[in-house]
Amino acid sequence: MTTTIDIAAHNAQAWDLQVKKNSPWTVPVCHEEVEAARAGLFSILLTAKKPVPRDWFPKDLSGVRILCLASGGGQQGPILSAAGADVTVLDNSLAQLAQDRLVAQREKLPLKTVRGDMRDLSCFAAGAFDLVFCPVSVTYIPEVQPVFDGVFRVLRPGGSFLFGATNPFVYLFNGADWDQNRFTVSNQLPFCSLDEMTPEEVSQALREKQTIQYSHTLESLIGGQTAAGFSITGFYEDVDDDLICRYSAKYFATRAVK
Fold first, then answer.
1. Residue 240 counted as domain residue
2. 42 with 79: CB under 8 angstroms?
3. Per-residue model confidence as pLDDT tens digits over 114-133
4. Range of 54's domain?
5. Coil/strand/helix, residue 46
6. What pLDDT does 2 receive?
7. Is 44 helix (H, G, I), strand (E, B) or coil?
8. Labelling 3: which of 41, 78, 148, 234 has CA 20 to 30 A away?
9. CB neighbourhood size of 129 (10 A)
10. Taking a C-beta distance cutoff of 8 angstroms, is the pair 184, 174 a contact?
């Protein structure tokens, strides 16, 4: 069903719309957060609520070359830049990148923005970065291995990859029932959010620029990193306010090293 849809273009427009709606992941950080980061105090998210452990980053971020991958929205990139890192933000949404530029201009941060598909990092040289930071965003692409392979290439030897993802199990449940806090197992994994829609519902979702989401599998999300050549050195789970989180964590994050 999704083969005739340009997923990257559609989800870019969907996230442009999320900016207009002030989605929580599109609201830029405030001046006070930037000032705290300049003083060496910062807290950023790979997942929903739990901050990334500070020791997942170098002790001194001065001059550390960081790629914030599919991480637009004026949140993580500006904080890392204010902490001293040399930051590039790549995102497919022009509106999300505009949020990063807004903060960079407001706070006079030397932040660079690049529009692009996270599955194609060919615009960057091999070994161009010391650290790649990728929050929950592979949810919006159908295949993840090109991401992991590309990240491995653009990291220097010994560089770190910080990655957040949705636990695939949440996509087992029927979406309409989920909205009513009923957890009915009806889907197979891997899963696309269009799979459980009627043709009329698909047309409506595309017309309204709803995001198209993909579940992937734990094998592809974790095993895909090791297949690219990474060694995973850190892991944690996270929750949000969803009722499902009474039963299991909804997100996970990994730290991997090249």
1. yes
2. yes
3. 999 999 999 999 999 999 99
4. 7-167+218-257
5. coil
6. 45
7. coil
8. 148
9. 24
10. yes
Kindly state whether residue 146 falls inside one of the protein's structural domains: yes
pLDDT, tens digit (0-9, with 9 covering 90-100), for 211-236: 999 999 999 999 999 999 999 999 99
Domain assignment present for residue 207? The answer is: no
Q: How buried is residue 20: exposed, middle or buried, by Cβ count under 10 Å (0-12/13-18/19+)?
A: exposed
Give the integer Cα–Cα distance in Å for 3 and 227: 26
CB count, 10 Å around CB of 110? 9
Buried b (16+ CB within 10 A) or exposed e, 160-189: bbbbbbbbbbbbebeeeebeeeeeeeebee
Contact 251, 240 (CB under 8 A): yes
Cis-peptide, bond into residue 168, ω within 30° of zero: no
Cβ-count burial of 42 within 10 angstroms (0-12 exposed, 13-18 middle, 19+ buried)? buried
Tell me phi and psi for residue 225, to 5 degrees.
-70, -45
Per the listing, tokens 């949000």 go with 240
Residue 209, both tokens: 């620029």
Q: b/e map of 141-153 (b: 16 or more CB within 10 Å)?
A: beebebbbbbbbb
Longest dimension (CA), the chain: 53
For residue range 135-177, what is the model confidence (pLDDT) as tens digits? 999 999 999 999 999 999 999 999 999 999 999 999 999 998 9
**CATH at 241:** 3.40.50.150
Rounded-to-integer distance, Cα 31 and Cα 108, Å: 11
Region of residue 199 (left: phi > 0; alpha: psi -120 to 50; beta: else): alpha
The number of domains in the chain is 1
